[in-house]
Amino acid sequence: MCGIVGYIGNQQAYPILIKGLQRLEYRGYDSAGIALIHGEKLNVYKAKGKVSDLVSFAEQKDIEGTIGIAHTRWATHGEPNQVNAHPHFSQSEELALIHNGIIENYALLKEGLKEHGYTFSSDTDTEVLIQLIEYIKKSNKVNLAQAVQLALNEVVGAYAIAVIEKGQPDIIVAARKGSPLVVGVGDDEFFLASDATPIVEFTNRVVYIGEEEIVVLRRNKEMRIKTISNIEKTPEIKELEMTLSQLEKGGFPHFMIKEIFEQPKTLSDSMRGRVNVEENNIKLAGFIDNKEKFLKAKRIIITACGTSWHAGLIGKYAIEEFARIPVEVEYSSEFRYRKPVINPDDLVIAISQSGETADTLAAVELAKENGAFIFGICNVVGASIPRNTHSGCYTHAGPEIGVASTKAFTAQVTVLTMLALMIGKEKATITEELYLKIVHELGQIPAKITEILKQDARIAEFAKTFTYAQNFIYLGRGYNFPVALEGALKLKEISYIHAEGYPAAEMKHGPIALISQEMPVVVIATSAGMYEKVVSNIQEIKARKGRIISVVTDGDVVVKNLSDYSISIPDTEECLVPLLASIPLQLLAYHIAVVKGCNVDQPRNLAKSVTVE
Ligand code: G6P
């Protein structure tokens, strides 16, 4: 989704801003732009397409200046083109603004501004905001920071913004509500960004801007923060855990494949200090501190979007099996609007890689208003969801840059499994024997994933066979049903092949009509859990000449013989199979997309962090 970068200091801003935009490319965007103050001039350059298109456009132009703001836009209001790209000028071209989010009352504000003689060149809600700021600034004769504050009091919606002013080369005014914003604090310089990725190579000291806060960055002075209702705040400097190498491809052709291969390490990181195989124990601080809430919970509601929702489904299976608490898994976008029943003794788990997904954040707020206890499972440290939940647990998968989530998903499943086991142990709803077996097995998972990754070259080879396909079906049962959903999502996200995940037995109620020799069917047929039944489903596909790619357990013969291609994974406990079975499906989707020449890391139309509803 849209990305923001800003800089004020002693260095030339242009290279820092362009580098920052490149770091934000992973979020997904369709145009880019930059504004720089050089002497008396406020230069704005914009281009449709990639950051490289912006760089070509700005070539030979005046790119001097030690203050600037830059943006990658993911179109909401108005098509992706140069006019709609940010930064937007105010009418007098004295102010320039970049904006993430949506101004919901922009139409009303626009009408009012038109009556005051303002005209608009773009279709965006953003242009309305900068015109409003200018109108307020001029009519109230106030400075930029005051004008921004007054304007934001009239705005309904979500935003992270940054504004600069011609003739004022020493100040950037920025603000946020519902859309993230972080300031990097260097030596006599400030960096501004929608997430920490553009900042990490310059400083590890950051300040996360809070809800409805305005930050004023002044050259060679302390930063100042106040709320839009004028309450002064003291900036709280935090240390970034992220490192630069985590943001580079490290020899891999794409971030996605790098992240797939990182999973033995990320899962170890996710379990570090939590799963103690020697002591046969699991300790999750977020659970221990709030044990009573979990033990008293009559129901758990998991809310999430996309891949995180799939992780939530696996979490449901594990929590219901081990902790015997009923679990509902809700799409955040549905949950927040459908007047759900939320009781004070419900416990809500919000899962989000980015911690910024607008719908999940709103679901958290709704559940909070209804008195539920909210537990967050997030990857990005310091993001909005972990800041708005009562307690939680980070997944510690490290920055995920590929839009298609891989390592964050397996880390979410790992955390949910640990949580289910801990609740089960406390409630004595899991036998000591099974608990110990699973804890021991969790410790083996990273090494088992390493084994699976050795089949990468073979999967890459047979992936070539399937680039012709227009449709795929993915089938699984029990814990492997969400794995099928996630496998199908990975394929459609990055290869643009239509793919559907189904519970294997449901195939007879519809999808079987689609099966022909053209139709590849991916079946997860591991030995743990309903193997025989899945074998029957495979026979049904075979009888209709469907092409079968199977994921089986090492040593399997029956399904292997029925399949056109099969990938075997080591045996494990049933609840842990998703952590292994997901890996070949990630590789399959990746290689099909690569052979098809798709932009794997930045698939068309998709955004990494969906900060608008
Ligand atoms: C977007 C991403 C998906 C992600 C989903 C939820 O659609 O492209 O990969 O699963 O948002 O994001 P979250 O950050 O809340 O997990």
Distance between the termini: 11 Å
- Placed side by side, the strands forming the largest sheet appear as 3-2-4-1-10-9-11-15
Mean pLDDT across residues? 94
The DSSP helix count reads 20
User: Segments where pLDDT lies below 50 for 5+ residues?
Assistant: none
What's the story with the biggest beta sheet? 8 strands, antiparallel
Radius of gyration: 25 Å
* Coarse morphology: globular
Bound molecules: 6-O-phosphono-alpha-D-glucopyranose
What is the structure about, briefly put?
This protein is α/β, with parallel strands linked by helices.
Q: What this model shows, in words?
A:
By secondary structure, the chain is α/β, with parallel strands linked by helices. The chain has an 8-stranded antiparallel sheet with strand order 3-2-4-1-10-9-11-15, with helices on one face. Helix 19 links the parallel strand 26 and strand 27 (565-569). It binds 6-O-phosphono-alpha-D-glucopyranose. 6-O-phosphono-alpha-D-glucopyranose (G6P) binds at residues 305-308, 352-354, 357, 360, 403, 405, 606, 608-610. 6-O-phosphono-alpha-D-glucopyranose (G6P) is lined by residues 305-308, 352-354, 357, 360, 403, 405, 606, 608-610.
Brief descriptors of the model:
24% strand; 613 residues; binds 6-O-phosphono-alpha-D-glucopyranose; 20 helices; 8-stranded antiparallel beta sheet; alpha/beta; 37% helix; 7-stranded antiparallel beta sheet
SSE layout and pairings?
Blueprint: E1 3-8, H1 13-24, E2 31-38, E3 41-48, H2 51-58, E4 67-73, E5 88-89, E6 95-103, H3 106-115, H4 125-140, H5 144-152, E7 157-165, E8 168-177, E9 182-185, E10 190-193, E11 205-208, E12 213-218, E13 224-227, E14 232-233, E15 238-239, H6 255-261, H7 263-271, E16 275-276, E17 281-282, H8 285-288, H9 291-296, E18 299-304, H10 306-323, E19 327-331, H11 332-335, E20 346-352, H12 358-369, E21 373-378, H13 384-388, E22 391-394, H14 407-427, H15 432-453, H16 456-463, E23 471-476, H17 480-495, E24 498-503, E25 520-525, H18 531-543, E26 547-553, H19 558-562, E27 565-569, H20 577-595
Parallel strand pairs: 18-19, 18-20, 20-21, 21-22, 23-24, 23-25, 25-26, 26-27
Antiparallel strand pairs: 1-4, 1-10, 2-3, 2-4, 5-6, 6-7, 7-8, 8-12, 9-10, 9-11, 11-15, 12-13, 13-14, 16-17
